[in-house]
Each structure stands twice: as C-alpha cells, then as structure tokens.
Design a protein that fits this description.
The protein is mainly alpha-helical. Helices cover 83% and strands 0% of the residues.
Length: 351
C-alpha cells in the first residue's frame, strides 16, 4: 500500500518545508502555519474521498491510455488549475482585473483579493451544487438500476425513473428555492451559474449517451472510446468537488500560498487513492461503495446550495460524506460475509 503514496509523501514533505521557509521569512508563526496546512490537507482528503470513488468507478472502464492521461495531466489540472489558477481566474472575472494583477494581489493584498473572491462565492457554489445534484439524481433515478443499497429509498427513486426529466426538475426547483432565499448582492449571477451547471451536465451526459448508443457499450466504456469526452467529464466532476474545499479553505486562512500547498497535498493523496481503488478493483469487492459515494455527493450538493443562503461548516460536509462512505463499506463487508453462507444453504438459488 505504501507504494501508492510514496510520491505523495515526498510532495507533502516538500510542501511543509516550503511552508516552513515561507512562514520563517514572513510572519514567523511557523507552528500555526504548519498546522493550518496540515488541516487543509486533511480537509481536502475528507471532502474528496467520495470523489476518488467516483473517479475510480469511471477509470476502471476507460482505456489504459486515458487512465494514464487522467492521472498525469489530470493531477496537474487538479493541483495547479483548480487549487491555484482557478481562484485567481474567478477573481479576475468578477473584479475586471488582469490575471497577473490578481496574482500579485493575492500575495501582496490578501484582504482585497478575498473581497473579490467573496463576490464570486455564491455563483460558484450554485454551479457546483446543481452539477453534482444532477450527478446524484441521475445515478439513483434510473428505472434500469438493479443493485440497491438503502432499498426503501433507492427502490422508490428507481421507480421515479419513469418520469422524464425528473432530475432536471428537482435540481431546478432546488436552485429556484435557493435563489428566492439568497441574500447575495447579485442573485441573477447565482441563478445563471446554477442553470449553467445543469446545462453543462446535460451536454456532457448527452454526449456520453450518444457514444453509448453508437458503440453498444456501458457509458463509461463508450466515454473512454471518446477519450477527450471522458477526460473532460471526470475533470468537471473533479472541479465541482474541489469548489467546496477551495472556498472552505479561506475560512481557515487568507494566504493563497498556504491554501495551494495544503489542498495540493490533499489532492495528491486523493489521486493516489483513486489509483489504488482501480488497480485493486476495490469497487468490485465492496459493491455498495459506489452507492455510498453518490449519497455523499447528494449531501455535498445539497449543502453547497444551502450555503448560498446560509453558511455551514465544512466539517459538516466532510462528516456526512465520511459517514456515507463508512456505512456503505460496512454494508459491503457484511454482504461479502453473508454471500458464501447463502451459497452453501441455497446452492441452486446461487447458480
């Protein structure tokens, strides 16, 4: 297991060393700074463990070439794109400043930088919330779904799959409620961001479905044939997951360097978890992990939409997600324990 995380450990040591030097040359609060980075890394891992499961689920069906591209190019996008460049880009859009000036602002005038980021806070949550809500609903509201975990609820959701566009209707209704309740200065930007999240999901999912019909393969396999489509799909899911961690990080510190290093360390460990899940084929051994991850996605998306109205703790998000994962893992272990006994007692039924 250590081999999966050896590069993460190297990155973590290098990151903590860089933060030590940054703090030593700056405010001098070395212990406090190191603790903040450590907590940010743990926060990122906690919030993104379900992301690792979703990534592994889709990577298992992708070609080896695109698996490697996602785990190499993807990590660069996840670490430097979403954890450093993306916040700067958002601030540049909402402030009207150039990207270079925003980068200088993030280091030299953190308060002003944070002010602009706060303006973008609600639209970002709205976009990520609706995108992930669509992912959650489309997984469970599916009349062809066979394997059920929480049977009373999931069987009811499966039955609702007969209703066309129900996922869009529910996501839109939740967005509209949040829009009516929000106190943001620019509610229309929040509304359009949420609509964009729904539309973008439908576009990507539509392309995946088109490839599915054309190749007569399961959606993840057909996406792999499309290569770039599958890669973009995973990156969008990854980006939506990272929004909560990036925005939540500013509740701990306003230092863009500490945020980037802490989230980078966490993101590296999450990607290594993804590789481990794929190579060990863990999802096939623990059949309910996928369900637990999607319930965690549903909780995360709902909390992101709630946060457009009322701020909640990132620990709540991480705690609910971790609970869903652990519960599904326990259920999977119990299933694997019962299965051999059921085969012994009912040999004809098991064949």
């Amino acid at each position: 297991m250590v081999r999966y995380f050896k590069y993460d450990i190297i990155v973590a040591v290098a990151g903590f060393l860089a933060v030590f030097l940054w703090s030593y040359a700056g405010n001098g609060k070395i212990v406090h700074t190191l603790f903040v980075v450590f907590f940010l890394a743990i926060l990122e891992i906690t919030l993104s463990f379900d992301n690792a499961i979703i990534n592994a689920m889709r990577l298992e069906k992708m070609s080896l070439k695109w698996q490697k591209r996602f785990l190499t190019w993807g990590i660069l996008i996840a670490v430097f794109g979403m954890r450093f460049f993306f916040p700067l880009l958002i601030v540049a859009i909402f402030s009207g400043l150039s990207l270079w000036k925003v980068g200088i602002l993030a280091i030299t005038n953190v308060e002003q930088y944070t002010y602009y980021l706060e303006i973008a806070h609600t639209p970002l949550l709205s976009f990520g919330g609706t995108f992930l809500m669509m992912l959650f609903l489309c997984y469970f509201i599916n009349k062809q779904k066979k394997l059920l975990w929480i049977k009373p609820i999931e069987s009811a959701l499966r039955y609702l799959g007969k209703i066309p566009f129900l996922s869009v209707i529910i996501s839109s209704a939740m967005l509209f409620i949040a829009f009516q309740l929000t106190q943001t200065q620019k509610p229309m930007s929040m509304l359009w961001a949420g609509v964009s999240g729904i539309v973008l999901f439908l576009i990507i999912d539509g392309i995946s479905s088109f490839l599915d019909k054309k190749t007569h393969m399961p959606i993840p396999s057909s996406v792999a044939k499309g290569g770039l489509v599958g890669f973009l799909y995973l990156e969008l899911i990854d980006a939506s997951f990272s929004l909560d961690g990036v925005l939540g990080a500013f509740a701990l510190t306003l230092d863009i360097v500490l945020i980037t290093v802490g989230l980078m360390i966490g993101a590296m460990f999450v990607r290594s978890m993804t590789i481990m899940l794929v190579e060990k084929r863990t999802l096939q051994s623990f059949i309910y992990l996928e369900h637990g991850a999607h319930w965690a996605i549903g909780a995360l998306s709902a909390i992101m939409l709630v946060n457009t109205v009322y701020a909640t703790s990132e620990m709540l998000t991480g705690g609910i997600g971790l609970f869903c994962i652990i519960a599904s893992l326990i259920s999977s272990i119990r299933y694997n324990y019962r299965l051999p006994k059921e085969k012994e007692l009912n040999p004809k039924r098991s064949t």
